[in-house]
Automatic annotation (TrEMBL):
It comes from the Eukaryota. Residues 54-138 form the PA domain. It is found in: Secreted. Plays a role in the modulation of physical activity and adiposity. Keywords: Glycoprotein, Secreted, Signal. It comes from Corythaixoides concolor (Grey go-away-bird). This is Protease-associated domain-containing protein 1. The lineage of its organism: Eukaryota, Metazoa, Chordata, Craniata, Vertebrata.
Length: 177
């Protein structure tokens, strides 16, 4: 299991590498999460954000107009897999000026299998990075936001997990690392 941060600001994140982010607020999900980049579309993730909003898209699938587009602008969108292609979702978030998007699997009990996000048949391009998140992680984040009546979580992304002692790693208790 690779616990190294596979992120280099000069070159960005590459396929089969992990990017870690930490939720700072709300406190009940203050954990470090793992995401993977899209295989063959999207921009390169090469920026560090110490505190940025992770906004749950409404509707969650983000296949068309968003009801909370004002919150997406200059933030990171949390989107759910399903109803349209990964690339189509990325276009919707880019059109609403999102910086990055994280697509959570719509299989809510998925806590170990990363989907390889690939280009659809349209040959469109997009400039923002797209990351994939396990379904259980996405579900727990959205559930916490709903419980607290919050439109977003505050996160730091990426987090260099190699500098954190193992006993201090705040891993989600539902995920095996």
């Amino acid at each position: 299991l690779c616990l190294c941060l596979c992120f280099c600001p000069a070159h960005g994140l590459h396929i089969h590498e992990y990017l870690y982010f930490q939720i700072l607020s709300p406190g009940d999900i203050r954990y470090i999460f793992t995401a993977t980049p899209a295989k063959d579309f999207g921009g390169v993730f090469n920026t560090r954000y110490d505190q940025i909003h992770l906004v749950a898209a409404n509707p969650p699938e983000a296949c068309g107009e968003l009801n909370n587009d004002v919150f997406i602008q200059d933030q990171i969108a949390l989107v759910e897999r399903g109803d349209c292609s990964f690339l189509s979702k990325t276009h919707v978030i880019q059109e609403h000026s999102g910086r990055t998007m994280i697509i959570a699997d719509n299989t809510y009990d998925n806590d170990s299998f990363y989907i390889e996000m690939t280009q659809d048949s349209t040959r469109r391009t997009t400039g923002i990075p797209a990351l994939f998140l396990l379904g259980r992680d996405g579900y727990m984040i959205r559930h916490s936001l709903e419980q607290h009546g919050l439109p977003w979580a505050v996160i730091s992304i990426p987090v260099n997990v190699t500098s954190i002692p193992t006993y201090e790693m705040m891993q989600p208790p539902w995920t095996f690392w």
